[in-house]
Write a structure and sequence with these properties.
CATH architecture of one domain: 2-Layer Sandwich
Bound molecules: zinc ion
Low-confidence stretches: 1-21, 307-345
Shape: globular
Distance between the termini: 71 Å
């Protein structure tokens, strides 16, 4: 009886919420990961992140092309090459500048789903278009096939027993790549395995100020995770606490080399937050993001890199946006994915 009353009450609340936000009841009850995971294209409205890295969504997303002059995207079937335009342009810039530093090119892991939100598998974060995974494995000097991109494994840089970097795999080029990524103002954190952080603490000479952005975290031995801050215009984006002052090569790092962080999870089968989130768990604006019109095509919102510049004119000619798309800003300031040279370059 109690159960039934409770269920009726829940149904009532759902109905009210659904009416208020004009979401069909079924949608309000569907798991958010199924709704966001089912979207093939972004919301064609102004670029905005809503909520937090592990609980939110975003609009105005753009994709990074599967192949660029200095990158190849992996695991194409997941359709996670999407991000806030600032994130995608930053990856493009990193690929170019890392290449100039001597890195052979980036292998790109997951960024976000087209409209963000919780994912069907994997990550807790990557929900608001401001997170990207980049492999520690350098890009081969040939085009990978789509099956290689699905199945090829990255190389773990860390011995899983000692949690220390495997010295024969670690190179100065890895350090330069992380330093380059950390050098961008937009980048607030880079997550790496504690063994990698320790290696940097032991070996980086000269400027060490960038070490504070490089944070130890579980996993991240095959790839590093670049996180940028909330971007201008995203007033409903919830930022992270600032990273602590100092290099982080202190006892906060030493903790990772105790037994405590590696104790087996007491309840490994407990459902993860992303597996339980419904639309009600997310910021209310995510309903509009989910239901917003899509751009006319993926190509219209894909960043191709310096070798194949994407101009505003080309996008508007080849792919006129629908009446609602990008309606919040005038066309001459449409968040078009394009190569923007830095002043002085
Ligand atoms: Zn990640």
């Amino acid at each position: 009886m109690m159960k039934k009353q409770f269920r009726n009450a829940v149904a009532g609340v759902v109905a009210v919420l659904a009416a208020a936000s004009s979401v069909p009841t079924a949608e309000a009850e569907t798991l958010a990961k199924n709704l966001f995971g089912g979207k093939a294209l972004p919301a064609a409205t102004a670029p905005k992140s809503y909520g937090f890295y592990s609980k939110g969504c975003f609009s105005g997303g753009v994709a990074i092309a599967t192949d660029g002059p200095n990158w190849q995207a992996m695991r194409l079937s997941r359709n996670r090459r999407w991000g806030h335009p600032t994130m995608i342009n930053l990856i493009e810039k990193l690929s170019r500048e890392a290449s100039a530093d001597g890195w052979p090119g980036l292998l790109l892991g997951d960024i976000s789903q087209p409209r963000g939100g919780p994912m069907l598998t994997g990550h807790a974060s990557h929900q608001i278009g401001l997170d990207a995974d980049i492999w520690f494995t350098p890009m081969p000097d040939r085009k990978l096939s789509s099956s290689e991109r699905e199945n090829m494994s990255a190389t773990s840089m860390v011995n899983e027993k000692t949690h220390r970097v495997i010295d024969r795999l670690w190179t100065p080029a890895h350090e330069r790549l992380l330093k380059r990524a950390a050098s961008y103002r937009e980048v607030e954190r880079i997550l790496v395995n504690p063994g990698i952080k320790q290696k940097l603490c032991e070996t980086v000479t000269g400027d060490r100020s960038w070490l504070k952005k490089v944070r130890p975290f579980w996993g991240h031995d095959y790839h590093f995770h670049v996180r940028i801050g909330c971007q201008p215009g995203s007033t409903d984006c919830k930022g992270q606490e600032r990273v602590a002052a100092g290099e982080g090569c202190d006892k906060s790092l030493a903790w990772w080399f105790t037994e405590e962080p590696w104790r087996p999870n007491k309840n490994p089968d407990a459902p993860k937050a992303r597996d339980l989130m419904t639309m009600k768990s997310l910021p209310a604006a995510c309903v509009a993001v989910l239901n917003a019109p899509a751009p006319v095509s993926e190509a219209a919102v894909t960043v191709r890199g310096a070798g194949q510049p994407t101009s505003v004119a080309k996008i508007i000619d080849s792919a006129p946006v629908t009446a609602n798309a990008f309606s919040e800003i005038p066309l001459d300031r449409v968040p078009i994915p394009m190569f923007r040279p830095e002043p002085g370059q």
